[in-house]
Amino acid sequence: MLEFRKDIFADERDDNLKEVGQPTQRQDMLGHVTGTSPYYDDHRFANLLHLKILRSPHAHARIRSIDDSAAARAPGVKRIIRAADVPVNLNTLLSLIQFGKDDEPSLASDVVRYKGEPILGIVATSERAALEALALVKVSYDQLPAVFDVEEALKPGAPSVNATYPKNTFEYYGKYDHQKLRYGDADAAFAQADIVLDERYQMSPIEHAPTETNGSITVPDTNGRYIVYTSTQALFFSLDTSAKINAIPSNQLHFIGGTVGGGFGGKVDTMTEPLCILAARLIGAPVRYRFSRHEEMQFGSPRGGERIYVKDGIMKDGRIIARKVRAYFDSGAYTRLSSYAVVKCAAHIPGPYTIPNVHADVFCVFTNRTPATAMRGFGVTALDFALECQMDKGATAIGMDPLEYRILNAYRDGDMKAHRREAKNCALIECAQVAAEKANWPLRDEFRKMSSRQGGGAAHTGGAAPARAPTSTPTSTPQRVAYERPTPSAPPHIAPPASPPRSAPPPPAAPSSGSTHGAPRFSSVFGTRRR
Amino acid sequence: MAKHRGRGVATINYPIGMNLGGDPSQALVHSNPTGKFTVALSSIDLGQGMKSVTRQICAETLGVPVEDVYVDTADSDTGPHCMGSFASRGTHRVGNAVMVAAREARAVMMEAAAEELEVDPADLETDGRGSIQVKGAPHRSISVRDVAIAAQFRQGKTISGRGIFLVPLSDVDPETGEMSPATCYAHACLIAEVEVDDETGEVTVLKMTSAYEIGRAINPKLVEQQLVGGSWMGMSHALYETPEPYYPDPRDGPRDFNEYLMPGPGDICPHDILVLERPAPDGPFGAKGPGEMCANPVLPAVANAVFAAVGVRVNDLPITPEKILRALKARGGAATPARAR
User: Fold this and answer.
1) Which of A283, A299, A493, B50 has the most CB atoms around it within 10 Å of its CB?
2) ipTM of the complex model
3) C-alpha angle A200/A300/B75, rounded to 5°?
4) Could you tell me which chain B residue has the CA closest to the CA of A25?
5) Whole-prediction pTM value?
6) Could you give the 3-state DSSP secondary structure of residue A32?
């Protein structure tokens, strides 16, 4: 099933270790197999109240009026929570690292921008009482035109989804509607290529589908603090987001996570904690807010559906001399984390291959659907699907074995990557060789002898390697820069235009500024991120 | 009407940690008065084994048995800041922070032992079984337990350490995209073999063979659970799952697991995995991290295998029977594409 190839790269490792490398049984195994590991929802409290959320039935609509008077009189109802009750209603998750503008309300007040958007919360003595009261709330809407396709959303006259980004794209560096990657001259290279291959790929959204749905319980503690039991994947990220939305100092919150019943990126968004804490603060009693399976499936953020166009310029000998990528990330109605994934995607282009001319534009697009978020492989999974299908088509187009085609173009130690850092510590070729050997996938001798290490030599096989096919010179030679990052105080090697100087990280645990406007600094996340 | 077999391949790499860095994690390590260590973190164990990985790294660095280390995490009052459990950053970022903290604690432990044995700390070594001894003279030794008691009650020393690991935040050039996205990358190659029924459009994944290069495998069993689980997730993503079956049309979304299509135990195929270890210069004992990447190569490998089997390209995920049948109809039936050799 699983075997190690300790023979490969053995000269780079010290295998004389005692505990590292051992198949030691996990510390929490006994708890897991006896069903006693504590999840957030295993904590029991007397007089626990339950928060349920009224959600928009429309993908895009103006809220004309909300009548919750009947709901307020319903049996078991303790409190109705409206947008006006939320101290800092507008937030964006990455304001914690100074990236992006606040664009998403905890509770919508005037416009709903996706089906399922929270409008109002009801806290009651049971989940059933809360749900029955929700059914009594009367909301009247004026429906607005909605847009669901990323490329439709960019056309002139498309419905504007997000009030903070009215043109339906996240704003990069205060001036661009996309992230750029430019290396060499792709267009000039296409003119020289034997074959040009232009293809379109569409990623599907998927659900994180955790066994444990998102949720949290807030319990008022003594001395004005609140204990929050949560399913979060990022304890301080959720704590600081909750402190910001509630406009309270971060040390009034005591977050206790624990075993998480499946995350995969879907428990970073802090979807339940802020309102759960608000409810507990307003009422002074323990409150639970947990997603039903339906909410998790439809209104918990999914992996987004990226659309990716890939254009390759290929020579008959198998060398890829140019690659152009245009990618659209479907962020849904709000930013959440998609803006970050766009930059990560750009950094990943053109994949683990050395291609001398690369050109990419990556967009974060707003549409009227549930906001997308991080999921395992965020920013990369869709791109890998597109690029690896494209590699297969390229190999077919020139009549080359698809694995040999990859090995030929694979990046090696010392190659320059499109984001202008030298490749080091590469091992793509060795993975291909080892997998091929195991699966009896025939590789020609010269491809079996190639290596990721400097010069493409056959270090691990000990045999002499043929010289690697020369790669074409980039039409404009990019400046070679050291892989190592400059020290924080040193200026960047290549000063990007209009960029603020790299700031030294301030000491950890800096006191919170206490500001509730815009994107305040938080005690647990430091450093400034360039816009 | 027939069933057709085909093999497809994908090769990928994956960046370790948050893109551009700027994502710190901290750790505290301290001994109780009888030489048992606690690692205090706020990192989350999602089931991936964060607690085990940091525990083994701490024990190795301290030079004590793993049973003498306990990892206490996920409490914001006792654990110092961690950016979070995502971006394949746990082993690399948190592991490094734990290593720094454990080194500091180890230095105090060795000083305290040296004072008890009346030797220079540089002449001492740990045996990894709970004792500290003079190099070359193992009969001159003291147990970690006795060192901890002496440090606490006689010498007035705290056997503890603080650690933080931060990859400094990189700038991005808005015009060219020049940036330092990550300090190290893991690698993989995956070969999938499928069978496609040209009457029903159904795809069965028969076998996967993969090679993963992940720096250092801190715990081989945890690596295996990630790589096996990830391949199922990738297979499910490639062929079954989506909350929007006719994306970008938002309708017909599933509401529960009865309506959300996923493979069952019978759809799981044999998977041979080979693990390579090329240590990352800045990883804890060279470790990178297998967390996210293992779902990624499965998607294109399955798509490419479908092409090899019946000669149609499905460029829109998931690769449903409906899409295959429509493509076969457009193509005029299944055909095995000519291979290079």
Assistant:
1) B50
2) 0.97
3) 120
4) B52
5) 0.91
6) helix
